[in-house]
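Minutes, project huddle
Topic: does the predicted pose make sense with S-adenosylmethionine bound?
PN asked that the exact inputs be recorded in the minutes so nobody has to dig through chat later. Recorded below.
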Amino acid sequence: MNQLQLFLSCAAGVEDFLADEVHRLTGLAGDDLLVGRGGVQLRASWRDALLLNLHSRLAQRVLVQLSHTPYRNENDLYEAASSVAWEIWFTTRQSFKIEVTAQHSPLTSLNFAALRIKDAVADRFRHKSGVRPDADTTFPDVRVHAHLTTDECTLYIDTSGEPLFKRGWREDKGEAPLKETLAAAIIAASGWDSVPLYDPCCGSGTIAIEAAQAACGIAPGSLRRFGFEKLLPFQPHVWEALQRQAEAARRSPSAPIFGSDVAFRMVDFAQRNAQRAGVAEAIQFRGGDALQRMPPSNSAGVMLLNPPYGERIEAAGVAGVGRSGARESAQTDDGSDFFPQLAAHWKKNYSGWTAWVLSPDLKLPSRMRLKESRRVPLWNGPIECRLFRFDMVKGSARARPAA
Ligand SMILES: C[S@@+](CC[C@H](N)C(=O)[O-])C[C@H]1O[C@@H](n2cnc3c(N)ncnc32)[C@H](O)[C@@H]1O
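Predicted holo structure (tokens), as shared on screen:
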């Protein structure tokens, strides 16, 4: 029975991809699956909540909505939180934390709002049982989320615990690793399926590993624990059945996957991460400069990458050498040599391939002297980016003439 109102949060720009994923995983559609700002809303079952935690690659959290009320001040928040039957969800033996997010809220302090909601939850338990549960802001057993708009407050209980991009396989990371959920969004946006996939600036291997897990039918949540395990409705036999089904769905990869990076340290990280993620056999990682590496497979495929960019990490390799002597890390902060050289290398050697490049630089296509065939807005944390698609047509038909 679809008796719960769920909200699956995701990064801005990912909502439609997440709705497609939820539909594929649960079969929900129509009024039971609505796309909102920063997430999707579902009418679904408790089992669906567990299933989505285990299988969603794009959601950040799976939240159960428990109330939605108008408010004007902190007292209204206290009243709203007092009216929720928290005792259905947890006991006084669990510690809890309130997390408040807001959009155009008139309240001056979200900390004070959180405090009032915390008091309301604890007071309700004290009235019912004489005991107050402990609040714990560092390692809570239970997380309650409050989302405030100008005049409405929505209260949720979190079934995920740690955010879902924490898959449990990443121990080695570089300076600018992509969140796993964003890597999954890049893969979803590209529509990749059954052709060779290559990330020539793979860093710690996030895109390749996410793709390989999907190709091998490995559930992204198979290595981690979830918040729902500490909630009262949790039934171990339901969860174990879902885990067994996920195990049984594993298969051989449907396509070859490759990653390379100019930094051998990164290649080493990527290999170790792939090992932990259970996909070491499904990916070939190599060292090498993206400006020199030739296609890793005979048949054309897709390249998916977030290349180095100044704000967080600079390009390295041959691009910088010669500009100011033999430098190890490349040239200008904005990669002004790297990108035209990369485009020239692709035009010459990668005809038939499609490249999807995530960048915060909205002028990247003109910098590369390529015309993009699509641009998808995506957010890398607080950084607004575009995912550009470049089709490396034979003879560079889509290439812009050099300025
Ligand atoms: C933004 S990071 C990629 C992060 C990666 N997606 C991850 O999740 O860890 C860019 C990567 O490009 C690599 N890089 C820099 N210059 C390169 C070059 N010329 N060829 C190949 N890789 C390069 C850096 O070593 C870095 O790992």
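Observations noted during the meeting:
- The first helix runs from residue 15 to 26.
- The pocket of S-adenosylmethionine is lined by residues 174, 176-178, 200-201, 203-204, 206-207, 261-263, 266, 289-291, 306-308, 313, 315-317, 319 (CB under 6 Å).
No decisions taken; revisit at the next huddle.
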